[in-house]
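Backbone geometry:

***
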Amino acid sequence: MFVDEVEIEVIGGKGGDGCVSFRREKYVPRGGPDGGDGGRGGNVVLKANNDIASLIHLSMQKIWKAKNGTQGEGSQRHGASAEDLIIEVPVGTMVFDQKHEIMLKDLSTNQDEFIIARGGFGGKGNVRFKNATNRAPRIATPGEEGESRQIRLELRMIADVGLVGKPNAGKSTLLSRLSRARPEIASYPFTTKSPHLGLVQVGLNRSFIMADIPGLIEGAHQGVGLGHDFLKHIQRAGILIHLIEPLPLDGTDPIQNYRTIRNELEQYDAELGKRLEIPVITKADIPEAKDLCQQFQTIFQVEPLLISAVTGEGLNQLVNKICEILRPQSSF
């Protein structure tokens, strides 16, 4: 199961209380106060991890609390500070404060860390209050409470290339052909219910990340279907590969389908409308694909690529074009 948004409460650990204690040893009269400070409470820390692909492990638990520091002791022994509570999240997780509706952190790099709730300081022992006028203080302070926050975690996948298009346009098939990803594939719309990432290896030391974004439909920018859930992942993609099916199963017009998806992207985020896009016509092994290629070029004055994920036609050309855009100075 893929989960890309959760709301949780995070609470830092309470600091340990300070200690009231007096030194009492034989042959040491008037030993004086010797109560130690309490230990600090643990912080709650969010940490990005490339090996985690979803927020599902956080969806089953709504409250995450770090451990408390321990109380101070006599002989000026300080209490132990608690260990931090590390919560691992996928790379690309954005952290929002629910109360103020502001973004606190974008964990966009592997091993990025962010203290989301600090633990409280430990209380002071009575040795801290000794002075010239009060040689035997009998007071100590309690430990501070840790910070508490209601937060929303939102995962937006980070990829070099995002595959977009109508349902059943061939995105999952292309991803599985170019990478080691194995998304579910079938002959009916909306097979893909969640984004998939795949690593496309080019030669020995070149690669890029490709994301299969589930099929978009008209009205997606208004949340129709799972529009918002899908569209937010496209915002992280550097290049958009727009797949156009020449003979849709539902009998719709391929050119109109292309315009519909373009409109949905622009309505959701104006920047997506300006994003570099490579139009690609799929299923080159059928006659309608070549006819559509000529029609597309005539209407939009752009020459689309023609590929077949089944036969492999045009795949090397597509990969090389992506590499040229991503690393224009490199040789692939």
User: Anything to note?
Assistant: The longest strand covers residues 148-155.
